[in-house]
Amino acid sequence: MAIDAVGVARVLGGEKVLGRRVRTVTDLRRTVEAGLPVGSLDAVAKHVARNDRDAAEIKYRVVPRTTLHRRSRLTPEEGQRLERLARITVLAEHVWEDADLAHEFLTSPQPQLGGERPVELTRSDLGAREVEDLLLRLEWSLPV
After folding, report:
1. What pairs with residue 73 in β-bridges?
2. Low-confidence ranges of the chain (pLDDT < 70)
3. Residue 101 to residues 29, 31, 93: CA-CA distances in angstroms?
4. What is the distance between the alpha carbons of residues 89 and 102, in angstroms, rounded to a whole number?
5. CA 38 to CA 4: how far, in whole Å?
6. Using CB atoms within 10 A of its CB, is residue 3 exposed (0-12), middle (13-18) or buried (19+)?
7. Would you list the DSSP string of the chain?
């Protein structure tokens, strides 16, 4: 499945927060490399979390609290972590066809992922790939 760059940009806050329109994966990559605005972190946290405590937990996993308050933009590495979470969120919403079911999947321990929560695994590239692989297996009704 191809990356839904428009959907990922929407979860990152859209054109209003990003300050540019994202139509392609190349646009998305360039936007992340340029440094995502801190507002994207807020947008993703609010989209994924169902309460303020969970949103704060998500935000501070991407950027430490003390560092965040001194920034207006994320570093490229922080932006990559945030983009991975947004990308996996969009994929989960596509697979489950329901934002609430996708949220439940992302924030609950998954036996197929060694009991870990997908939202935590997206902090690393390999973890995100594990989650993506599971979602694609579910999408195509393959053994998990």
Report:
1. 37
2. none
3. 28, 29, 8
4. 7
5. 22
6. middle
7. ----HHHHHHHTTHHHHHSS---SHHHHHHHHHH--BHHHHHHHHHHH-SSHHHHHHHHHHHS-HHHHTT-SB--HHHHHHHHHHHHHHHHHHHHHSSHHHHHHHHHS-BGGGTTB-HHHHTTSHHHHHHHHHHHHHHHTT---
Has this prediction a pTM greater than 0.85?
yes
Token duo for residue 79: 């932006």
CA separation for the pair 97, 121 (Å, rounded): 21
In Å, how far are 4, 51, 132 from 40, measured between CA atoms? 17, 17, 22
- Please write the tens of the pLDDT for every residue from 106-119: 999 999 999 999 99
